[in-house]
Structure formats: structure tokens, C-alpha cells
Amino acid sequence: MVETLGREGKQMHYEEVKAKYKSGMGMLLLNVLLMLASIGGFIWGIIMIEEGTRMTLGIVMVVVSATYLFVVGPILFAGLKVLKPNEALVLTLFGKYYGTLKGAGFFFVNPFA
Question: Which of 19, 32, 43, 51 sits a CA distance of 20 to 30 A from 94?
Fold first, then answer.
């Protein structure tokens, strides 16, 4: 597509790309379930450490669960996008054009875009 921009009449070539997305509701439910499982894993790891049985496994469970709860889970929530009718969302990934979302809906896209 060619479009004339600015006072000097410079032309710009661009191509609109449809952004890759997944179902927002599915990803929301999956992330919430994984966060609940992480809470359970965290508690289970603490109990294992307290009892002194399988100390290494308990520490691994606590670290993995805490990492998901406090780092990965919140980042995944940032990828959830809601679009109303007649709205569009242009996504960029580290300064480069990633794609455009059009149409109403609940979407999951790359959380860094």
C-alpha cells in the first residue's frame, strides 16, 4: 500500500499484518489455574522443608512456584487485550511493527508487544 505523507508529499510503503493471537479467555483460565497450582506447590515445598524430608525437592518447589507466581504469571497477564467494536490495536515488539488486531474480542498476544 502506498500513502502520501507530510508537506513534501513523500510516499511511504507499508503492509498491514494481522497480529498472531490466541483466545484471551483460554489463556486467562490457564494462567489462573497455573498460579493456583503454584500456590499449592509453594505450600507443599514449605511443608517438605519444615519436615526435613526431601529438602532439595522442597527448595526446588518453592523456587519454581515463587518464580511463576511473582514473575511469569504477571507477565502473562500483560498479554491479555480487550478490544471494543470499531477499535484496532497496533502492536510493536521492541520498536518494530509486530501486527494489528482488529475487531471486538478478548485476545492474548505476546506480552512484550
Answer: 32
